[in-house]
Amino acid sequence: MNKFKLLLILLILSLFLTSCKERTPELVRENQFVLGTFGQIQAYSTSTKKGNETLTMAYQRIHEIENKMSVAIEGSDVDRINKKAGIEPVEISQETLGVIQEGLEYYQMTEGAFNIGLGRLIDLWGISIESAVAPTTKPPSEEEIQLAKAHIDLQQLEINNGQVFIKDSGMTIDLGGIAKGYAVDEAVRVLKEAGVESGFVNLGGDIYVLGPKPDGTLWKMGVQNPELGATNVIIKIELANRSIVTSGDYQRYFIDEETNQRYHHILDPETGYPTDNELTSVTIISNTSIEGDVWSTAIFIMGLEEGLETLETLPDVEGILVTKDKKVYTTSGISNEIELLDTSFTLAN
Fold first, then answer.
1. Please, what is the angle between helix 289-302 and helix 304-311, to 10°?
2. Pair 322, 343: CB distance under 8 Å
3. Is 2 exposed, middle or buried (0-12, 13-18, 19+ CB in 10 A)?
4. What's the pLDDT tens digit per position in 53-85?
5. What digits encode the pLDDT tens for the residues 11-58?
6. How deeply is 43 buried, as exposed, middle or buried, from its count of CB atoms within 10 A (0-12, 13-18, 19+)?
7. How far apart are CA 324 and CA 285, in angstroms?
8. Which domain range does residue 228 map to?
9. Is the domain of 229 the same as that of 143?
């Protein structure tokens, strides 16, 4: 009897230890090219098989969004809206409609700095990765820019009974500045619903970190050196259950072969040209990536002073602004949370 009890205890202990081992989270990862950019999803899962299946579902969700909202995919909701501009309304998915409506709300909130109606300007400059036209190496003429600028008025975008109509036949919309953030948030939702408690989604720099790591430590995230050719991180910040998104003039650009002048992809709706102010990068930390996507662009366009003032009014949204003279400005909510790693930059505030 004693031997039997001993064997039973050893068996239970063995099963318990095996169970504990099986429950140890393992890191699964998958990279894909999506939404015109490099996608990277990593998650800790107690089952490698289930973890990989979850990553597949997350990417499937991203591809669904891309097929509806990409300006570069023929037959997408956005493509059909643009092709019917000035002709007739187009019935689209409720999902795309919701993102368009969010874009219109952000247009009001940013006082026009964020504008989903810049499709014609974006194509004219040809710098965007989601542009429907081929990249260029020469800036457009002033006449071309002013002509395109005449067709970015969101008053021309009409929504009625689930249908979208661009009344101006010369105007097109582009959701590139908001759809990527939305896709990150949706991929995170898929991970959460599958039981993932720790991981991250990164779509070309639009990042959401889910939970702390299994050992309880926070995710260490960095702000890249915005100088051309640099690859180092200048600032470190630790995050959990937050989004971090950066927009910078170093990310996508072309150099005019004749003048050697550089033109980047963040277009100012007021001028029609790439934004030219004291900023070189804007990093937004927020609860959702869609907020980070929008505000990183809008704050970059607003400039340093207006950008900082605006950020301080936004609940649960923080910012790190880097200027061309290598100064770093932060909002008050994270001023004590960042660590400067590159001493050639200085903390200005």
1. 140
2. no
3. exposed
4. 999 999 999 999 999 999 999 999 999 999 999
5. 444 444 444 445 688 999 999 999 989 999 999 999 999 999 999 999
6. buried
7. 21
8. 218-347
9. no
Does 253 fall in a domain?
yes
Q: How many CB atoms lie within 10 A of CB 81?
A: 23
Give every CB contact of residue 339 below 8 A, 6+ residues apart in sequence.
235, 236, 237
What is the number of structural domains in the chain? 2
State the burial class of residue 185 (Cβ atoms within 10 Å of its Cβ: 0-12, 13-18, 19+): buried
Q: Provide CB contacts within 8 A for 215, sequence distance 6+.
A: none
**Residue 160: partners with Cβ closer than 8 Å, 6 or more residues away:** 89
CATH of the domain at 110: 1.10.3980.10
Is residue 322 a contact partner of residue 345, using CB atoms and an 8 Å limit? yes
Give dist(CA 94, CA 96) in Å, integer: 6
CB 334 within 8 A of CB 237: yes
